[in-house]
Write a structure and sequence with these properties.
The complex is a heterodimer of chains A (about 750) and B (about 140). Chain A is mainly α. Chain A has helices spanning about 5-25, 30-50, 75-105, 115-130, 135-155, 160-190, 205-220, 225-230, 235-240, 245-260, 265, 270-285, 290-310, 315-345, 360-375, 380-390, 395-420, 435-455, 455-465, 480-515, 520-540, 545-565, 580-600, 605-625, 625-650, 665-685, 695-700, 705-715, 715-735; strands at about 55-60, 70-75. Chain A has 29 helices and two strands. The chains are: A mainly alpha (about 750), B mainly alpha (about 140). The interface between A and B is large, with 42 and 52 residues.
Chain lengths: ~750, ~140
């Protein structure tokens, strides 16, 4: 490794392509689609080239004082996941041109097409960034970016309540648990002093658990799986990409990337977790009626297999499994999309016998289903072969569980395919356009080619793990793996035959489980938060003055706490000199202005009396020889007087509006407490004999001139940047709140 | 507004802006800084609003660019923190450094902290004028 170009070139292209597609898409959805296909293919080609020249590495040191650097490398793991993300991405984008155009035309917002393609490409870029990142912080950033983009893609039909709610569920589960990953990153940094994965020996068990939870959520593993079936509301290309090859793969990728530094006792728990997901996902896939829901259940189950492999320590096998599954599953998702386009139906019970109408799709889809089920001649056979090899020698219970898993996989793959293409011809299908069939055929050909010689995936996956290529070959003997595969086929056929009687009880079980499952608990939690927020909001925005009290109460509490815990010296009234008399006069004027502000009758008068307070204080600063502070105080006072008058004058006068008769006691108490504590704490601070201060050093550095300006621009410049940002943001929010409304009745 | 106020504003407009620029430029050695410069500019513009009315003020001054000005100012401020960090690793380092001889333009020492102050001035002036204009528009519509 060493040359930066093999990793930089695909990354750069991937991150530029969403912008490019967005710009080109201005001239129409076709142009956006063409640009997106070219970009995705170019990214794929560059990755392939990077792989052929042996990978590369690139690092940029930023904030070297903290040892932070952006390090990307195209190693085996990155190559495999990158190629899967870019390859499946290219096929899905190819498919989605026609699909999304029809989809959006029906909704009358055809202009959304370029947004769709740009978002898909942004997702590809995020996946590529994640795959190549060699640094924990970057890993977190890209992990979160995939969650954010997936939210936009799942809720792409944002005019539908259900789509928005599904997007939000996915975001809360995947990005919400992503916070744990950030915590893990921070903890790992504190523990080992570096963020570079290669420099960390082994993570503490706590960090490992914190990092595993978001990975399991992302890969839709039980009990955080419920977001995936809901996300099936998304347009089909999104499901085909995110929910087969990209987003769910990010979770297992995270575990694979961290696998060398995860303690074995933590990764061991992945085996039982994976088997639970295989069971739950399998039951969903065997009982669901909507086409995409069947596939969602199957994805949960298939990633359960990957978790088992990772738990057994077979990173290479897990990576190979992800790639093989992505090919088969995206082809099946695209099949579901084409069937829905051709018949207008979304459920298994509403279609049937379509082999007659869509013969090419039926054959291609048969290959994909066979690939998912792990039948010979497809690459899927090897994915199950890898699974069996990992299980062999780990005891009979695991082997039995493994075979039960593959039997259920075969049964739901057969149920999906046969339900669509065989049986009674329920509804005639329109002729499917070639662009909606060709991508499935392409994926089917790849599955067959992989079943013949592994299409190089074995070597790349080998590099992702220990280094030796996987042994992908057909062995015609009675080894355990072959016997298990044979058992799968026989058992799967038997289960298919028995499904007629088994299905009703499974359906009942799944519906009962859904009623008490984690999805319901999640909904209950979100609902409670929403209701609480509505109640608090109702209390808070009704009246302005109690609202101010709500900020004064914590202030009183905090300052009071400081007063009672930090008490150090007696209160010293100090000595009053003759020269201080003007200061006292000024303070008296300011106090008078403040009292007058409380008791004025009109808003305008209140603004003017407040101005008296402000300008008197500005004068006092000038008297105390602080010209910079005095200048700023006077200018701020002027500006605020103008702004306040501009806001207050359009309001109706007080007698015209219904104001509360008396100031609520809460407001009075809170104000008196907050002001009182502030007063005594300030007094106490000023009574301390000497104070440690950096002011002397600043004055010395500034050579005596323009100290305030130098402090703002230089010594405390970062504070100034933060303050300026806050100022700009608050001004912007005021401006947005006051935005003139364009049309009546619409916001 | 009376011709007297209009006359005063006419006379004071340019000098006020000169004062603002002076605050910004002299900030590193004397009283004043970018923040004060921005406020003086905003106050000056609000005087124009007051004297000539919103419509006339829009005609004389490029008020519709106020929001963009604040945005560009923020970019300059954040940029002057980020760019040195990317170049040599210390956020908000100003150029030329202390040990290097500065280029002087008359009595003015050229330093990148000038840019920083100008950015703050743009944020303050642009933001306040933007909000003022919104308030004035709202008032004009209702009364």
């Amino acid at each position: 490794m060493g040359s930066p170009l093999p990793v930089l070139a695909p990354l750069a292209v991937a991150f530029v392509s969403p912008l490019l597609t967005w710009a080109v898409g201005r001239s129409g959805p076709r142009a956006a689609h063409r640009a997106a296909v070219v970009c995705a293919l170019l990214t794929f080609a560059l990755l392939l080239w990077g792989h052929l020249v042996g990978g590369g590495e690139w690092a940029l040191s930023w904030v070297p004082a903290w040892g932070l650097e952006a390090r990307f490398a195209l190693d085996g793991l990155a190559t495999l996941y990158g190629l899967v993300a870019a390859g499946i991405g290219a096929v899905v984008i190819l498919y989605s041109g026609r699909y999304i155009e029809d989809h959006l035309r029906a909704k009358g917002r055809l202009r959304g097409a370029r947004k769709f393609h740009a978002l898909l490409l942004l997702f590809l870029a995020a996946m590529l960034g994640l795959a190549t990142a060699q640094d924990l912080l970057l890993l977190f950033l890209f992990f979160d970016l995939t969650a954010l983009v997936s939210y936009l893609l799942i809720a792409f039909d944002h005019e539908e309540d259900e789509a928005r709610s599904a997007g939000l569920t996915a975001l809360l589960v995947t990005a919400g648990s992503g916070v744990l990953l950030l915590a893990a990153v921070a903890w790992a940094w504190l523990d080992s002093g570096t963020l570079r994965i290669a420099d960390i020996a082994v993570l503490p068990a706590g960090v490992a658990v914190l990092a595993l939870v978001p990975a399991l959520a992302k890969s839709a593993q039980v009990p955080l799986h419920f977001w995936l079936p809901r996300a099936m509301i998304a347009p089909t290309p999104v499901s085909a990409y995110l929910h087969s090859a990209a987003m769910v793969a990010a979770g297992v990728f995270l575990i694979s990337r961290l696998h060398p530094i995860l303690p074995a006792e933590v990764t061991g728990t992945l085996v039982p977790l994976g088997f639970v997901s295989i069971l739950v996902g399998g039951l969903i896939a065997l009982s669901a009626d909507p086409l995409k829901r069947i596939l969602a259940g199957s994805t949960i189950a298939q990633y359960g297999y990957v978790m088992v492999l990772l738990g057994l320590g077979d990173v290479a096998g897990a990576s190979f499994f992800v790639a093989a599954h992505a090919l088969a599953k995206s082809a099946l998702f695209l099949t579901a999309g084409t069937v829905t386009e051709a018949t207008g139906e979304r459920s298994l019970s509403a279609v049937g016998g379509l082999a007659r109408d869509l013969p090419v799709l039926a054959i291609a889809s048969l290959v994909a289903a066979a690939g998912l089920a792990g039948l010979p001649l497809t690459v899927g056979f090897f994915k199950d072969d890898v699974f069996f090899t990992a299980l062999a020698g780990r005891g009979t219970p695991l082997v039995v569980l493994g075979v039960v898993s593959t039997i259920s996989t075969l049964a739901y793959a057969a149920r999906f395919w046969a339900g669509i293409f065989l049986g009674p011809h329920r509804r005639p299908a329109a002729k499917a356009p070639a662009t909606l069939v060709f991508p499935v055929v392409l994926l089917a050909l790849l599955l067959l080619a992989g079943g013949w010689n592994g299409i190089g995936l074995d070597a790349i996956a080998g590099r992702a793990g220990a280094g030796a290529p996987l042994d992908l070959a057909y062995h015609f003997d009675l080894r355990l793996e072959n016997l298990l595969a044979l058992a799968t086929i026989v058992g799967g056929a038997a289960l298919c035959a028995a499904l007629r009687w088994l299905q009703p009880p499974i359906e009942r079980l799944v519906s009962v489980a859904a009623r008490v499952g984690p999805g319901t608990i999640f909904d209950l939690l979100v609902g409670t938060v929403r209701r609480t927020a509505r109640v608090l909001h109702g209390i808070d925005v009704r009246l302005l003055r109690p609202r101010l009290a709500h900020t004064l109460i914590p202030m009183a509490a905090l300052v009071g706490l400081a007063f009672f815990t930090q008490w150090q010296t007696a209160f010293d009234p100090g000595k009053i000199l003759r020269a201080d008399i003007p200061v006292f006069v000024g303070l008296a004027v300011a106090a008078g202005g403040a009292i007058a502000t409380i008791s004025t009758a009109s808003d305008t008068a209140m603004v003017m009396t407040l101005t008296v307070v402000g300008f008197t204080l500005a004068t006092l600063f000038a008297l105390l020889r602080a010209p910079d502070v005095a200048l700023v105080a006077a200018l701020v006072e002027t500006t605020f007087t103008i702004l306040l008058l501009a806001f207050v004058m359009p309001l109706p006068s007080r007698s015209e509006r219904a104001a509360p008769a008396r100031t609520p006691w809460l407001v009075v108490t809170a104000s008196v407490l907050a002001a009182g504590f502030a007063f005594v704490v300030t007094w106490e601070m000023l009574s301390r004999p000497t104070m440690e201060s950096v002011a002397a050093r600043y004055t010395e550095l500034a050579k005596g001139e323009g100290v305030v300006g130098k402090i703002l621009a230089d010594y405390r410049g970062l504070d100034t940047v933060g303050e300026t940002t806050v100022l700009a943001l608050s001004l912007a929010s005021v401006a947005v709140l006051m935005r003139p409304r364009r049309k009546k009745g619409r916001r | 507004m009376t011709p007297l106020v209009q006359g005063v504003v006419r006379v004071l407009f340019m000098p006020s802006l000169v004062v603002a620029i002076a605050f910004c430029v002299k900030g590193s050695t004397g009283t004043g800084d970018g923040f004060s410069a921005g406020l003086v500019t905003a106050i000056t513009v609000s005087l124009v609003f007051l004297a000539f009315g919103l419509r006339e003020a829009r005609r004389i001054l490029p008020i519709r660019h106020a929001g963009a000005m604040a945005g560009i100012g923020l970019l300059v401020v954040v940029g002057s923190a980020v760019v040195p960090a990317v170049i040599d690793g210390v956020p908000l380092e100003h150029f030329p450094r202390v040990e290097v001889e500065v280029v002087k333009l008359g009595a003015l020492a050229l330093n990148s902290s000038l840019l920083f102050d100008a950015g703050i001035a743009a944020v303050v002036a642009g933001g306040v004028v933007f909000v003022l204009e919104r308030a004035a528009t709202a008032r004009g519509r209702e009364g």
